[in-house]
Design a protein that fits this description.
Layout (H helix, E strand, L loop, with lengths): L1 E2 L6 H12 L7 E2 L9 H8 L18 H7 L3 E6 L1 H9 L5 H8 L4 E5 L3 H4 L2 H13 L2 E2 L3 E4 L5 E5 L3 H15 L6 E6 L4 E4 L2 E3 L6 H12 L3 E6 L11 E4 L3 H12 L4 E4 L6 E3 L18 E3 L3 H8 L5 E8 L3 H11 L4 E6 L11 E2 L1 E5 L4 E3 L3 E2 H15 L2
Parallel strand pairs: 1-2, 3-4, 4-5, 8-11, 8-13, 11-12, 13-16, 16-17
Antiparallel strand pairs: 6-7, 9-10, 14-15, 17-19, 18-21, 19-20
Helix pairs in contact: 1-2, 1-8, 3-5, 4-7, 9-13
C-alpha cells in the first residue's frame, strides 16, 4: 500500500486496519511528505510490518528493495494518490521508494486520488489519470463531499470500505476465467490495392482491445490478434499485429485449437482486390475500375473447426433487419453467442468510446444493453460468456 502526502492520509490507518481484518498481508510504502500527515509508527503497528519511506534504512544503511516489493505484492494500492504522485506515475519519474516500487510492480495497481476539486478536474490531472488507466492501472474514483479547503465537491478520497470492496470484487472477478485461454480479434483489416492504397473500414479496434483488457483482469490468458489500430493494449497481453484478412486468418487458426474461448470482434474486410499492383497506380484515367473478390470468412472457418468444449463468439454490425441477420449468422456459423451492433444508434459502432449492443445466444435469448463505455460493454459480454461455460 502506497501512502502519499495529503490530508486524506489519515484514512490510510483505517484502510490498513480493514485490509488486515479481511486477511490481507500489508506492507506500507510512504512518500517523505506523507510522514507530515501520519506517522510511520502508526502504519507499521497496524500493518505488523515496517512502514518503509526511504531507499536505505537511515539507521543501519540496509537497502529497502523496491524490486522485491513489486514482485511480492498481489496488488499495489496507492491511497491517497496526490496530484503530484499521479503526474510522476504517468510520466515514469522515480524519485522516491513508492515510485520505484510502482515501476517495478508486476501486479495490478489501484490508485485512489485525493485532492481539491479544481485540482481533480484540471486537464493535466485528468490526462494523467487517463494515461494510468491506459497502462492498465485501476482507478478508484474520488468521492464528492466536504474537502479540507472548506469547499464541497469531487476530490475526497474514497472511503476505506469502498477501496476494500473494490479489491474484493476485483479478485473475485479475476478468478472468473482463471486457467482459461482466450483468443480475441480486434480492429479492421486493410486489403492492399497497391503499395499506398487499400480497402478497409472505420473500425478503431477499441471494442476488441477493451474485451482483451477486461478478460485479462478476469483471469484469462489472453492472446489479441489486432488489425491496423492505434489503440494500445496492456503489455501483459500477448498481441499479434496483422494487416490483411489473410494474415488475420493465419494468426487465428494458429492459436484457435489451443484456446477455450474465442471472441471474434475484428471487422475483417469482406472484399479484397483480385490483383495487387506492385507499383503505385498513377492517376492517368478519369475512371479506375477494380475487380474485387471475397475474403476468407474466418468466423465460419472457426465455427467448423471448434470443438464442443470451446466457446465461439462473433460480432454483427448491421444497418437493416439487424436481428434477422444476426440470428442467421449465429446459426450459420456455429456460434455460441453473437454481439449485435447497430450503426443507426447514436454513440454506437466504429470509433466511439461508447457502444450499445444486443447479445443473442444459441437459444435466441436476447439481452440489450444501454449506451455504456466500451469497457463496461466488454464486462457485460464477458459475464455472458462466463454463463456459457457452466
Amino acid at each position: 500500500m502506497g501512502v502519499c502526502g495529503g490530508i486524506a492520509a489519515y484514512k490510510s490507518a483505517l484502510l490498513v486496519r480493514l485490509l488486515v481484518k479481511n486477511g490481507a498481508e500489508v506492507k506500507v510504502v510512504m512518500t517523505d511528505s506523507a510522514k507530515s500527515f501520519i506517522s510511520p509508527l502508526t502504519l507499521a503497528t497496524l500493518s505488523k510490518n515496517p512502514a518503509l519511506c526511504d531507499f536505505f534504512d537511515p539507521k543501519d544503511g540496509s537497502w529497502n528493495k523496491h524490486v522485491d516489493l513489486g514482485l511480492w505484492a498481489d496488488a499495489l494500492v496507492i491511497a491517497p494518490a496526490t496530484a503530484n504522485t499521479l503526474a510522476k506515475m504517468a510520466n515514469g519519474l522515480c524519485d522516491n521508494l513508492l515510485l520505484a516500487t510502482y515501476l517495478s510492480a508486476r501486479c495490478p495497481v489501484f490508485f485512489a486520488p485525493a485532492m481539491d476539486l479544481d485540482m481533480y478536474k484540471h486537464p493535466s490531472t485528468l490526462k494523467n489519470i487517463h494515461t494510468l488507466q491506459g497502462f492498465g492501472d485501476i482507478l478508484i474514483p474520488a468521492e464528492t463531499g466536504e474537502l479540507a479547503s472548506g469547499l464541497t465537491g469531487e476530490g475526497r478520497l474514497a472511503e476505506p470500505e469502498t477501496i476494500v470492496f473494490t479489491l474484493q470484487n476485483f479478485f473475485t472477478r479475476q478468478n472468473t476465467f482463471g486457467g482459461k485461454k482466450m483468443l480475441v480479434s480486434a480492429g479492421p483489416t486493410f486489403e492492399a490495392i497497391d503499395p499506398v492504397r487499400f480497402i478497409g473500414n472505420h473500425s478503431s479496434g477499441k471494442m476488441g482491445v477493451a474485451i482483451a483488457e477486461q478478460a485479462r483482469l478476469m483471469g484469462a490468458d489472453v492472446t489479441l490478434i489486432c488489425g491496423p489500430s492505434s489503440v494500445e493494449s496492456n503489455p501483459l497481453i500477448k498481441r499479434i499485429n496483422v494487416m490483411s484478412g489473410d494474415e488475420m486468418a493465419q494468426a487465428m487458426h494458429a492459436t484457435f485449437s489451443s484456446v477455450d474461448i474465442c471472441i471474434m470482434s475484428a471487422a475483417v474486410a469482406d472484399y479484397k482486390p483480385s490483383e495487387f499492383s506492385s507499383e503505385k497506380i498513377k492517376k492517368n484515367e478519369p475512371v479506375l475500375s477494380l475487380t474485387l473478390e471475397k475474403t476468407r470468412d474466418i468466423l465460419a472457418e472457426l465455427g467448423k473447426e471448434k470443438t464442443s468444449q470451446q466457446i465461439l463468439v462473433g460480432f454483427a454490425l448491421e444497418t437493416q433487419k439487424e436481428l434477422d441477420y444476426a440470428i442467421d449468422k449465429l446459426e450459420r456459423k456455429n456460434l455460441d453467442l453473437i454481439v449485435l451492433n447497430s450503426l443507426r444508434i447514436q454513440g454506437a459502432g466504429f470509433g466511439h468510446d461508447t457502444n450499445v449492443v444486443t447479445l443473442i445466444d444459441k437459444n435466441q435469448h436476447k439481452e440489450e444493453t444501454p449506451i455504456l463505455p466500451k469497457s463496461e460493454i466488454a464486462k457485460i459480454i464477458l459475464q455472458k460468456v462466463a454463463t456459457l461455460m457452466t
